[in-house]
Amino acid sequence: MSFTLAHLSDVHLSPLPAPRVSDLIGKRITGYINWLRKRRRAHDRSVLNFLVDDLTAQSPDHIAITGDLVNLALEEEFARGRKWLQQLGSFKDVSFVPGNHDAYVRQAVRYAPQWAPYMTGDNGVVGFPYVRRRGPAALIGLSTAIATAPFMATGRLGEAQVKALGPLLDALKTEGLFRIILIHHPPVTESQSHKRLLDAWALVEAIAAHGAELLLHGHDHLHMLNWLTGPDGTRVPAIGVPSASAAPGLSHDAAAYNLYAIGGGPGAWTCQMTARGIGPGGGIVETGPVPLLAPA
Ligand SMILES: [Fe+2]
Ligand SMILES: [Fe+2]
User: In angstroms, rounded to a whole number, what is the distance separating the alpha carbons of residues 98 and 234?
Assistant: First the structure.
C-alpha cells in the first residue's frame, strides 16, 4: 500500500481584506499597489476553490503547503488563512511552511501563532526545522520567510536551521523514513537574484552530505524539477508547483498541485508523481504518473 502526499503552494488567498491606512507602511504600500494593479487578477479565488475541491476528491493521506498563504501579511489575512487551513483539513493532516508573503513585514511575526498547529513538530514544538512523521514519510519543515525591503522577495534559512538539518536527515534515515523537505524558496532557480534563497548553497551542501528522498518548494509559481546531488551518487528531486490560485493564460503556469505516491521501503523506495492542474479549457488536466524513484 502506498502513501499519498499532495503538495500545493502559493495560495495567495484572495480577496485581500481592505487594509487600514495605518497598515500601509513601508513595504506594504508597494505591495498593495502591486496587488491592485496585477496580482488580484493573477490570483483567483474561484480557481483556488476549484483546485482544492479536486484535491480533496483525491483523498490524499497528507497535504503539504509550501508558503505564501497570504499577500501582505495583514492581521485579517492571518485570521482568514487560519480559517482556510481549518477547512482544508486537521493540523494532523496538513503541514505548512511559511513564504516571504507570510512574513511580508516584520510585524507579521505577531500573528503567525494563528497558524502554529500546522507548523508544530511531533515533539509539540513550533519551530524550524520541524519533523512530522506520517506513514512511511518524515516531513521536514524549513522556514525561509524573512521580512525584506520593498521589491525584494529573498529568503534565508540561517545558520541555526542549516546546522540542525544534517543530523536530522541522518537520524531520519536511520529510522528508515522517506525524507521529504518542505521549503518555500527553491534551492535551484533561474529567477532574478532579488527573489532567491540567499543561502541556497548551504541547503544544497547539506543534501549532498546527508541526502533526502524528495524536496518540495513553491515561490517561483512554476512547474519545476531540478535534480540535486545526494551522497554516494544518489540524486534528489527538487520539485516546485505553480501557485494554487493562478488564473490560466497569464505569465506564470496555471494553478496545479502534485500528488506523490510513496511505496517500497528503505533502500528500495518508489515514488510516482502525478500533476493535476487547470487546463486551457478550464477543466482539470492530469499529467503522469511519472516515476521519480524506482528500485535499482
Ligand atoms: Fe508566491
Ligand atoms: Fe514567495
Answer: 28
User: Residue 73: how many CB atoms within 10 A of its CB?
Assistant: 29
Count of all residues that appear for the chain in the document: 296
Distance from Cα 219 to the centre of ligand 1, integer Å: 5
Residue with cell 477543466: 283
Contact 214, 224 (CB under 8 A): no
**Residue 8, all three cell numbers:** 500545493
194 alpha carbon – ligand 1 mean position (Å): 14
Nearest-10 Cα torsion for 107, 157, 43, 118: -80
Phi, psi of 291 (to 5 degrees): -75, 120
Q: How far apart are CA 243 and CA 57, in angstroms?
A: 19
Region of 38 on the Ramachandran plot (φ > 0 left; ψ -120 to 50 alpha; else beta): alpha
User: What number of other Cβ atoms are within 10 A of residue 17's Cβ?
Assistant: 17
The alpha carbon of 18 is separated from its chain's Cα centroid by a whole number of angstroms, namely: 26
The residues facing 88 across adjacent strands are: none
Rounded-to-integer distance, Cα 261 and Cα 207, Å: 22
The bound ligand whose nearest atom lies closest to the alpha carbon of 99 is 2
What tens digit of pLDDT does each residue of 14-38 get? 888 877 777 777 778 777 777 777 7
Pairing type for strands 214-217 and 178-182 reads parallel
Q: What is the mean pLDDT of each run of 10 residues along the chain (296 residues)?
A: 94 86 76 76 91 98 97 89 97 96 72 87 92 98 82 87 97 98 96 90 98 98 96 95 93 94 94 95 93 75
Residues with CB under 5 Å of ion ligand 1 are: 10, 68
Prediction pTM value: 0.95
- Beta strands per DSSP E along 9-105: 62-65, 94-96
Q: What share of the chain is helix, strand, coil (3-state, %, to 5)?
A: 30, 30, 40
How many Cβ atoms sit within 10 Å of the Cβ of residue 220? 22
